[in-house]
TrEMBL record:
Iron listed as a keyword: no
Pfam families (UniProt xref): Ammonium_transp
Protein's UniProt name: Ammonium transporter AmtB-like domain-containing protein
Domain of life assignment: Eukaryota
Listed transmembrane segments: 38-59, 71-92, 134-152, 164-184, 204-221, 301-318, 330-353, 373-390, 396-415, 427-449, 484-506
InterPro entries, alphabetized: Ammonium/urea_transptr, Ammonium_transpt, NH4_transpt_AmtB-like_dom
Amino acid sequence: MGSITLYVPEPVPTLGVVSATYDEILTHPERFFQGSDIVWMMTSSSLVFLMIPALSLIYAGMGNRSFALTLFRLPLITAGFISFQWALWGYAFTFTRSSAKWWGGERRAFGLTDVIAHPIDIGDRGQGGSIPELVYVLYEGMFAAFTAALVCGGTMHRAPPTRFLGFITLWSVLIYYPVARWSWDSDGWSNKLGVMDFAGGTPVHIVSGTTVAAFAVFCGIEERRESGDVVTATERLFKSLYKRMYKRLINPWVELWKTLLSLVRYCAVRYFGKSPPVFEDDESDGDSYDEYEQEVEPYSVNYVVLGTAILWFGWSGFNGGSALGGNLRAVSAWTSTHIAASSGGAVGVLLIWRRKMFARASDPSQNMSYDNLTALYFCDGAIAGLVAITPGAGFVPVWSAAIFGVISSLVVYLLKEEALVFLKRDPLQIFAVHTGGGIVGMCLTGLFASQTTIGLDGHSTMPYPDRTRGQRLGYQIVDSVAGISYTFVVTMAILYFEKFVVFMFINIGRPLHHWRLVPGVTNTYRDHLQATPMQAWRTTGDDVLLHTIDPHNHQGPQPGPITEAPTINGHTPHQQVVQMV
């Protein structure tokens, strides 16, 4: 290979070993830390924080009208609570030294008493530059806040905000801190095994998605228990699981035959104007569908698109900042992130176009139900790509990022179809997107990790470089399975503990709703009223409320004659006064 001529400004940056006391570092920090690294990490921290209001937009847009306001507010409130907790004890438990393997315990870190300028190594310990500890505290605190905010979408239909905040406080201490420690801290068992997780495939995405899945399972069990139908529900679950496995795995030719028939039908309608006979499947699953089995009607597609755009922008700090410095590895991580999101979004659009094609072939009247789905599927695919590339952004070459996006988008698309049956109480599909995408990313990271990419910061090396790709993949799977298992078990334990506390101390002689507007009006109904535009209280000439008109009519409601607004206990909705109970 020929030589390359470079024009490098003087002086050339160099690294050297310097001995100094902590007081000397505090007095002259500019002598020991690169200002460019600090600026980049501060910028990255701000970008990660920007992802939290992006989640508010996405969750509010994806959820239905009845919960739009709660889902819009809760991520930011949650982030505030967790950031406060991170300052008090979170950082100390996660990243400081201790005799225990699962917890830190340095007193100086509690309350951020003395975390100003202790050096944090950027790459391998003792091999490269460093950043001040306070910068690292801020950056990792944003990760903790964002992960907790991800869980908010799983509370839809279920938990009042105050009880959720109690849950998420315990959850952070018992789940997030230990998993983050074993993944990123030098004393963590996963880190010592050589598992590669650049920016949070397991501690952020797999953990948050599994938490929502456990939340959904818990709520399903409790609802069936209250109705006395636990045994019947379990039998139905296993029957449905068997039937779907039979269709997907044992007899795949049936699905292929149906696909070919749909394609023939489409061609016949498209080119000959005739429709061949439709053969109905006489076999029924025999499952009864309740309200949770219906797909959630999105409140605002525009919110979802805007939120995804902001999330995409913020992910540059989420992955790029995990290089812990302004170096070429950070550039590679951000470039890979952008390519993975773009390819994932493109695959999402192709999948919905395929679905539209078969829908038109089978029933042309179904076109209306797909009007806004192209944008939603693009956003789903883009987020799946972002999630998948997270663990590998700083480990894999840029050319492999498109593979992350394509495979994750396909896997999440298929997993969402199954989750509609088995996780009906996760209407925003957080488990499918984040746990599914996180597992894909962890596995692909083990296959595509490259020393060339890892060493772009100038001082990092691949852990256990003599391992084969298969061995690295095995360790990546072990870490993912450990994250799923630990998170699910501990989340269920927290939920049952909270149920016990509520039963013993709170829920004696009081309604289950944490607060109401007036007796008989729940917070869900209040959100429904507040999220309804003012003109929706107008009626048509037939005294039909406009907000009850077919939602697939995207022309929007047409104003009619103004009539008296509906009343509740003698008051209009906007005259209700919040009463704490």
